[in-house]
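Lab channel / #folding
Pinned by the channel admin:
"Please post every new chain as: sequence first, then the structure tokens as a reply. Keep commentary short and put observations after the output so the thread stays searchable."

First post following the new format, from NK:
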Amino acid sequence: MEVVWVFLCIFSVFFALPERFLVLAAFSQSLDSDFTFTLPAGRKECFYQTMKKDASLEIEYQVLDGAGLDVDFDITAPSGHVLFSDFRKSDGVHTVETEEGDYMFCFDNTFSAVSEKIIFFELILDNMDSDGEDPEDWKEYVHGTDMLDMKLEDIMDTMNSVKARLGKSLQIQTVLRAFEARDRNIQESNYERVNIWSLTNLVVMVLVSGLQVYLLRSLFDDKRKTRT
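Reply from TO:
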């Protein structure tokens, strides 16, 4: 009997898998994307993101390369109101509770006449569920008693927690890669400067040494005319 009961339990679990996958689709998901671009000197670039009401928009940016490692940044709401403004900063993080419409965020390098900037930014969108689905709609897919004393709500809470932590880990890794790229650019720039100044000092030392030798030899040269 015990073998038959175990077999029925396993069969019930596999039979319920399609319904459980439908439940997974009913939960809200966060969307994230990242982008790296070159901002020429004296230019301003703007990007647009369509948002829904009561959603969340988080943007994080970094200047990876360019003189000063700084840029101007601002976020504008669909109403035209400027929500955040950063002036001559190398990085920043902003979170907005959104309304319906297109949000504009701009990177401004017009203050620089010669130096272009390489900029990385990441967008994280939360609560972007479509069609106004009710978070409790998944319950209509649940029928009968959960087998093996497993509660579906506990399973879904655990899976959502794991998903959120994995997403956060991916976000942190992306940000760390951006920091690493910026630090590498700084190190390469410093390396070039050290090499240039070392070569300049070497040339100056050679010239000074030659000048000293010439001056010492001129001091000991007997320029008096001798009669024969």
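NK: Residues 1-28 have pLDDT under 50 and may be disordered.
TO: also worth noting, The first helix runs from residue 2 to 15.
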